[in-house]
Structures are given as C-alpha cells and as structure tokens.
C-alpha cells in the first residue's frame, strides 16, 4: 500500500495538472473501503 501512495505522489510531482485526477482516485478507493466496511 505504501508503494502505491509513493507511486501516486510521483505522478503528482511529475504532472501537477493531473493532481485533481490523482486525488479523485484515492477518494474513490476510500469510498469503496467505506462501502465494504458497511
């Protein structure tokens, strides 16, 4: 999981314009986790 976050951070640092998209991805993952928890 840590490597995934590092990879995302690298993408964000590489392409700042892609930041909104990178932020949306983790948000979706969090939503899936919340749904699973329920």
Automatic annotation (TrEMBL):
What ranges does the record list as Basic and acidic residues composition bias? Answer: 7-18
Q: Which domain of life is it from?
A: Eukaryota
Composition bias (Low complexity) maps to 27-38
- Region entry Disordered, spans: 1-38
State the protein's name: Uncharacterized protein
């Amino acid at each position: 999981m840590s490597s995934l976050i590092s990879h995302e951070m690298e993408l964000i640092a590489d392409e700042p314009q892609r930041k909104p998209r990178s932020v949306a991805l983790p948000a979706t993952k969090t939503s899936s986790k919340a749904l699973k928890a329920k």
